């Protein structure tokens, strides 16, 4: 990987399957990595492993729950207080919930964790990202192209979202007709849409914003999607998937590959730029999602 000495990288979901690899690899390349996690002890092993591998970079930990507005603001403030410049932000935290949950702020949980956490980190770190002419990478999911959990032959079904839906983020993913994987897909699509609006604004200072699907990767997130009756065979499912290191490579590439200098507003499936459904190109919708997130961050 390109040498990253003298750079600062922020990684959310740093305790997870892919997050741990992203943190370790950025540190190995010489970056000072701010690992954002709910529990710092889950980062201790990453730090120890990086040290054993002789990684020259430093790993700092900022703890916080990105599902709440208060947590999101606290994490962003902690990062900004310590770092005037951020050169890489990997919005990797994410979750899939088997049932409908509502956060303390009244958001459906996928909207909070798979969308607002990424939007909020990017928005609230605006100044350090601009000073660092940063690369922002949003780890999303190919469910933004097809929200069917099982892809039987037939036309893809992208998640549906309208400007009216997003006018109030609390109305996204309502109880009526709730399907967990579609709710996850819709939240990831909101991240792609808002990311494109953010790319336009941040581009004036050389900041790029891209989204990536890492492939199907053997992590806790996927373990949680295996139906209860099939849990004893989870190892079989895992064996068919990419390793966390193979999955993490996609975000690392977008975060560091010199060949991608200046690339922005793109969507990649692993290492290939991939077209998105028309809904993702709707500039009015991109702006509506951006405004809704901005309002929510300010007023709750
Ligand atoms: N695995 C796949 O096949 C796949 C496919 C497409 C996209 N993705 C995306 O890849 C990203 C990484 O996921 P993964 O597969 O590596 O899964 P993972 O091992 O479950 O990691 C998810 C990470 O997100 C963190 N997180 C969850 N809720 C959070 C919250 N409220 N506040 C702060 N952090 C929170 C988790 O923290 P804790 O350790 O505290 O739980 C964990 O570090 C996610 O955005 C996911 O949607 C994964």
From TrEMBL:
Does the keyword Oxidoreductase feature in the UniProt annotation?
Answer: yes
Q: Does the keyword Phosphoprotein apply?
A: no
Sorted alphabetically, which InterPro entries does this protein's record hold?
A: NAD(P)-bd_dom_sf, SDR_fam
Could you state a single Gene Ontology molecular function term?
oxidoreductase activity
Q: Name the keywords, alphabetized.
A: Oxidoreductase
Q: Name one Pfam family in it.
A: adh_short_C2
Give the record's family classification: Belongs to the short-chain dehydrogenases/reductases (SDR) family.
Q: What is the protein's given name?
A: NAD(P)-dependent dehydrogenase, short-chain alcohol dehydrogenase family
